[in-house]
Amino acid sequence: MSDGPGAAPPAVVIGEALTDVLVDSGGRRRGLPGGSPANVALGLGRLGHPVRFATRIGRDTNGDQLRRRLRDGGVLLAPGSVTERPTSTATALLDGSGSAAYDFDIAWAPSRQAVETVRTGPPAHLHTGSIATALPPGADAVFDAVGRAQESATTSYDPNLRPALLGPPGRERARVEQLVEVSDVVKASAEDLDWLYPGQGAERAAQRWATAGPAMVVLTLGDRGARAWWRHGSYRVPPVPVRVADTVGAGDAFMSCLVSSLLRAGLLGGSPACREALAAATDAALLPPPIVAALSLASRAAALTCGREGADPPTRKELTSLF
Q1: d(Cα 304, Cα 160) in Å, to the nearest integer?
Q2: Whose C-alpha in 103, 246, 257, 264 is 20 to 30 A from the C-alpha of 92?
Q3: Distance, CA of 219 to CA of 299 (rounded, Å)
Q4: In which band, very low, low, confident or very high, does the pLDDT at 65 lie, cut at 50, 70 and 90?
Q5: 121 vs 6, which has greater pLDDT?
Q6: Is the pLDDT confidence value at 192 over 50?
Q7: pLDDT value at position 246?
Q8: Among 198, 268, 310, 257, which Cα is nearest to 47's?
């Protein structure tokens, strides 16, 4: 692995945790812990980072399962994250290739106490995205938290759009672009950008985002790998061959591993020098080796996750031993 020496920098993740109800092509159902930000928090914890997770989890059977999994992965729930309301669910209908279409039963209204976790610590890095940045009433609180975090931490964002919960693309575009502009690193899927900018092309949209504020924008392309853009160029990340069980959580594993590697390389973190280092590293026609290595490792983490059922990001030991 390309990570440098020293203790893993701490991170805060803000966003939804829910139960993925997986329904395979034969109609069989299985409930697994999920939620894009929860998966990223778990991935960072498994990769050795101290993680605080601000979310909304119910005191029910699904919530108990989520809390155990996060705790076992080294994730600390922010105070105020556990509520009396039911835990949200997402029913994932899997086709023969393992790709998922979702149906949601979700509410996103985190407590003020949970969201205020960005003020404590402080963290080296804040990550958010998906439903938490789009669904009222909590989305506005998350946007405010991102703004506050910029004073002392770097930030990353994954829109991970869920059209079933959203209005038309034209209405969602402004909020997404606001978050892109204030983030240091952005990751999106081709499906996200094709939906958000119909007829424009996902790669063209990602390239445009890379000139709007972030130091780097990464577009994941499924079995075609990924591509990263920065102000002065782009880099294609080759795919990692894998026998796919399903694709649930693959993008989240990519995101957590990318953030982890950049944190350990000193290119993200809680000092102005880290943001300056990332800006300097992406102020050239070619990406430096630490960023190329981070993208490659993130692609491997996604592939490993695709090889097993549900959102199950790898540990640091697994990435070291398997690749």
Answers
A1: 20
A2: 257
A3: 11
A4: very high
A5: 121
A6: yes
A7: 84
A8: 257
Give the tokens for residue 108.
């996103």
The answer to whether 54 and 117 have CB atoms below 8 angstroms apart is yes
Strands 226-230 and 216-220: antiparallel
> Which tokens go with 295?
């993208």
Q: Are 125 and 145 in contact (CB under 8 A)?
A: no
Nearest 5 degrees, angle CA 73-CA 75-CA 77? 140
Max Cα distance, the chain (Å):
53
How many Cβ atoms sit within 10 Å of the Cβ of residue 158?
31
Nearest residue to 233 (alpha-carbon basis) of 213, 252, 210 = 210
Give Cα 253 to chain centroid, integer Å.
7
Contact 288, 230 (CB under 8 A): no
Number of helices (H), then strands (E), in the chain: 11, 15
Per-residue three-class SS string for 165-215: HCCCHHHHHHHHHHHHHCCCEEEEEHHHHHHHCCCCCHHHHHHHHCCCCCC
* Mean per-residue pLDDT over the chain, rounded: 91
Q: Which pTM was predicted? A: 0.92
Query: Per-residue confidence at 238, pLDDT binned at 50, 70, 90?
Result: very high
- Phi and psi at residue 93, in whole multiples of 5°? -90, 110
46: Cα separation from own chain's centroid: 14
> Dihedral of CA 127/133/138/140: which sign?
positive
DSSP 98: S
Give the C-alpha distances (Å, rounded to integers) separating 264 from 29, 117, 192: 39, 22, 28
Query: Residue 265: which residues within 8 A CB-CB, separation 6 or more?
Result: 2, 3, 4, 290, 291, 294
Q: What is the pLDDT of residues 127-184, one digit of tens each?
A: 999 999 999 999 999 999 999 898 889 999 999 999 988 999 999 999 999 999 999 9
The residues, ordered by sequence, that sit 6+ positions from 249 with a Cβ below 8 Å of its Cβ are: 34, 39, 305, 310, 311, 312, 313
